């Protein structure tokens, strides 16, 4: 059985942007699509407000799913689409979905988010706990994932290796170039920082050689994907955020070599999700094609 692309919807603009991205991804990679709406159990089934139109919460949820399914079928008539109306805590139910999903896709902020938040709590929590890749899609910017290259952040960690494989598959499915980015954050140790120039340049050269050494395996597995390497001096968050301006997708490992053992979602990953201009995929090791 082929694992589906699962997308969570709640009626928000960001969720519909996530739905559009998920439809395209499932179509490109010949995967089924599963549209999920999670109703939290503590919300009242019957509400007195006029906005409900006299419908129960279950009935409104079913209408939401039916509308989302219709959207998906209009965009991709041959796509295999299923829906699920689930009851429970949103993050936990989507985490359970991730156990049998190829990828879980969510919007950057849903109807439950505060206006000032760039990323909703669901997307952020799920990115650190899901069993497979999680894609966070911002609306309207980068909503459906347009043209451009795929960018993969790489630091040699197990999670970044898994992210690189996912990025390779995404690039192959899109016919896009893959840019592998390694950013070295150099700390200035003294006011006379110019004297450290040769040391920094040497370290970057060594790391560039190490990145190049790790890539042939993936080039052999995906021979049709053009791969370019970018090794830069700078903090990974602004470097990757800048790369996202012209990218279709940024792919990151959940936690890199610089993460604390107790941290589920690394600080670099957390920062890039907040600042990226395109969808961001977060991948945990191990990841393998469904």
Automatic annotation (TrEMBL):
**Domain of life assignment:** Bacteria
Return any one Pfam family short name.
Answer: Usp
Q: Where is the UspA domain?
A: 1-138, 150-284
According to the UniProt entry, the coiled-coil residues are: none
Please name the InterPro entries in this protein's record: Rossmann-like_a/b/a_fold (IPR014729), Universal_stress_UspA (IPR006015), UspA (IPR006016)
Concerning its family, UniProt says: Belongs to the universal stress protein A family.
- Annotated PANTHER family: ADENINE NUCLEOTIDE ALPHA HYDROLASES-LIKE SUPERFAMILY PROTEIN (PTHR46553)
Name by which UniProt lists this protein: Universal stress protein
Species name: Nonomuraea rhodomycinica
């Amino acid at each position: 059985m082929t694992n589906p692309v699962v997308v969570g919807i709640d009626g928000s603009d960001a969720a519909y942007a996530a739905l559009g991205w998920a439809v395209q991804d499932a179509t490109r990679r010949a995967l089924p699509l599963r549209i999920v709406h999670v109703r939290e159990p503590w919300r009242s089934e019957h509400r007195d407000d006029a906005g409900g139109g006299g419908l129960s919460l279950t009935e409104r949820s079913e209408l939401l799913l039916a509308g989302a399914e219709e959207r998906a079928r209009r965009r991709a008539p041959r796509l295999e689409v299923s829906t699920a109306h689930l009851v429970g805590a949103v993050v936990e139910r989507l985490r359970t979905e991730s156990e049998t999903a190829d990828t879980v896709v969510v919007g950057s902020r849903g109807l439950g988010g505060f206006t000032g938040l760039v990323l909703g709590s669901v997307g952020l929590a799920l990115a650190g706990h899901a069993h497979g890749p999680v894609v966070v899609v911002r609306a309207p910017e980068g909503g459906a994932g347009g043209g451009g290259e795929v960018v993969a952040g790489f630091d040699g960690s197990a999670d970044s290796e898994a992210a690189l494989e996912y990025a390779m598959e995404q690039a192959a499915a899109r016919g896009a170039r893959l840019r592998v980015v390694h950013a070295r954050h150099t700390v200035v140790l003294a006011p006379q920082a110019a004297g450290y120039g040769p040391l920094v340049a040497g370290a970057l050269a060594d790391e560039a050689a190490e990145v190049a050494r790790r890539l042939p395996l993936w080039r052999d597995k995906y021979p049709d994907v053009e791969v370019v390497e970018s090794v830069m001096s700078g903090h990974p968050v602004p470097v990757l955020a800048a790369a996202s301006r012209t990218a279709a997708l940024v792919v990151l490992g959940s936690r890199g070599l610089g993460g604390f053992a107790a941290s589920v979602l690394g600080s670099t990953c957390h920062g890039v999700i907040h600042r990226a201009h395109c969808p961001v995929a977060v991948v945990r090791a191990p990841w393998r094609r469904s």
